[in-house]
Amino acid sequence: FPPTSQKHALSTNSNGFVHVKNPHLDLLPEDILYHFDLGTKTHDLPSMFGDVKFVCVGGSPNRMREFARFMHKELGLEGDGNNITDICAGTDRYSMYKSGPVLSISHGMGIPSISIMLHELIKLLHHAKSRDVTIIRIGTSGGIGIRPGTVVITDIAVDAFFRPQFEQVILDKVVVRNTELHQELAENLLRCSNEINDFPTIIGHTMCTYDFYEGQGRLDGALCSFSKEEKFEYLQKAYGAGVRNIEMESSVFAAMCHLCGLKAAVVCVTLLDRLQGDQITESHAVLAEYQKRPQKLIAKFIRKQLSLC
Ligand code: R2B
Ligand code: URA
User: Fold this and answer.
1) N or C: which end of the chain has fewer CB within 10 A?
2) How many CB atoms lie within 10 A of CB 188?
């Protein structure tokens, strides 16, 4: 397929609304957000979500529930954060929790899963007339040449060829989309982490792949068609191109948020250094502490934005 270039400047919308870019939507009598089990006729989306200012997304439903509980406490909200309920309880595809102005949603693993969630989330924020929303993916990743437990704030998501783009097949064409993230937000997050001064944090490129095993150059999958030397050559090349971590959602996340005028960041902790191995061997307790790191950083950022610290 010949690639179709679709580079857009960050859609600046003076009113701060999230915009959908689909003329067909206006013709729908009702919009059913099927994978959330929410809809414009069955739910009062403006009253449920109109005050949302921060959306945090991450792969695992349990981790996003923990994050919502943590934010409930961090924001000093009334009541017991432990009783927080899943807004998407009617479906087991995604989980969603709300703590004041902070929405936490799980997105599952991989580009197709997060992409479906983002279509419905962006429409939800649009129908709810939410304004000035910042969206952050908090996740896990494999590091390249950096200490495990390091948090990487993505400046740009790249594909497996280290290109700053995301290719989406639409009908029978390949549409190429920009994967830049919000630089000022990334720098602001780095400053927050320096203030916490609890764990190493860097800004770097994040490589987004379609697979965890062969797609990330692992030697321990059910299939492997390359040598150990070829693996290292590839990872070194990635490092040389500025890649500091590898995960599976950042490119479509960056592309969709960019097109819809959402200020977006990707903050992932590294669970291992891929130059040292492929298997995740740290104990459950160590991994649990690592996964709290992006959460602590985002809590600090949100508290600062709300002038709570
Ligand atoms: C990071 O971790 C998951 C794979 O273990 C995947 O969702 C990702 O991006
Ligand atoms: N998530 C990934 O996608 N890769 C890793 O190596 C670790 C977590």
Assistant:
1) N
2) 16
